[in-house]
Amino acid sequence: MARINVNTLRKEFGEGSDAVVAVEDVDFQIEDGEFLVLVGPSGCGKTTTLRCIAGLEDVTSGTLKFGDTDVTDLRARERDVAMVFQNYALYPHMDVRSNIGFGLKLSTKLTSAEIDRRVEETAAMLGISDLLGDKPKELSGGQQQRVALGRAIVREPEVFLMDEPLSNLDAKLRAQMRTELQELQHELGVTTVYVTHDQTEAMAMGDRIAVMNDGRLQQVGRPEEVYRSPTNEFVANFIGSPSINLFTAEVNGDTLVGPGGFSYTLENPSYVEGYDRIRAGIRPEDMRLVSEGGNNVDVTVVEPMGNENFLYLTMGDIDMTARVDSSMRPQAGETVQFAFDEDALYLFDAESGDAIK
Ligand code: ATP
Q: Start and end of every ABC transporter domain (predicted)?
């Protein structure tokens, strides 16, 4: 049973006035067999959180549990985790067979026949059986990454911990490996924590995603949940590509008044009761071009994507993006009108950034 419990985890580096709080009171649980993606901008504490789970960093405070076992004070090799890093660092002088089997030779009492069997099974699973005799320098980046994964899989650990394992691959291969890795993880059913700064990767791969910023956990949820019901403006802005359109609006009774003459009368004004000012958000795909009754925006660039067009717009001093049907093709320089459904409008507290709708 490898449910993971991260309990009020805190990690500081350095001491006194030089101390850096890398991870601040982070709490979450990963279910047995689940694929959880830790995502956030550079420096937000993802890697440190992962290294604490691995036992590569001592925690400053908080506890870590695997199943019912408190592993907080256990060393890395006592935790039954296998890690895959961005720099997969294969042993250059060893062939693929030895690279995959090396950890097993060191850490288990398996016979060499048994090790061979497990290495071959793993290689078959990863589609690299015919490379077992090759040295790393004879392999492509994608093949090397598969070998690194093989090294983790062959150990049959309770937990996989992966830190940006695909970031050295080109875009096409990365997209392909995402799917493969996700399928493999579901097949193996090994609880996995996967770190990335790439929200597209997080959305595509995670059963759930945990969004971090500035050492703190912002939200944990299924990808669509985090996308559609972000807990705050940071999450709304970080998740989604192109990103959500955000602007400040004054609250005038039941009407929101924003930049460039934006005005919108709420059907349900209860959300903004007591607010003078709020932050409003509309996702690019929720912006509709209309011929009348909408708000004015100026078109700066039209980018045809084949099945749809991306429109780059300005509303007063705010840049916006809209994703519209490919039949909608205004000219750069034109002023057009947009509308949206109130259901698709996000509202945030202008001071705290917390979601109010
Ligand atoms: P990235 O995506 O850039 O790797 P990250 O989200 O994984 O970023 P961490 O590497 O966990 O972030 O770093 C979190 C914070 O802790 C940063 O401010 C970083 O400078 C600091 N930090 C990390 N490791 C150490 C260390 N060994 N000593 C001092 N500070 C550290």
A: 4-239
- How many angstroms is it from 14 CA to the middle of ligand 1? 12
* pLDDT score, position 27: 96
Measured between alpha carbons, how far is 179 from 186 in angstroms, rounded to an integer?
Answer: 11
User: What pLDDT sits at residue 1?
Assistant: 59
Is the overall model pTM greater than 0.90, yes or no?
Answer: yes
pLDDT at 105: 84
Exposure of 292 by Cβ count < 10 A (0-12 exposed, 13-18 middle, 19+ buried)? exposed
Q: Which amino acid is at 216?
A: R
Residue 302: φ, ψ to 5°: -115, 125
Length of the chain: 357
Structural domains of the chain ordered from first start: 4-238 (3.40.50.300), 245-349 (2.40.50.140)
Looking at the CA of residue 195, tell me the nearest atom of ligand 1: 7
Give every residue of the chain whose pLDDT is below 50, as ranges: none
Quote the ligand 1 centre to 217 CA distance (angstroms): 15
ipTM of predicted assembly, 2 dp: 0.96
pLDDT of residue 176: 86
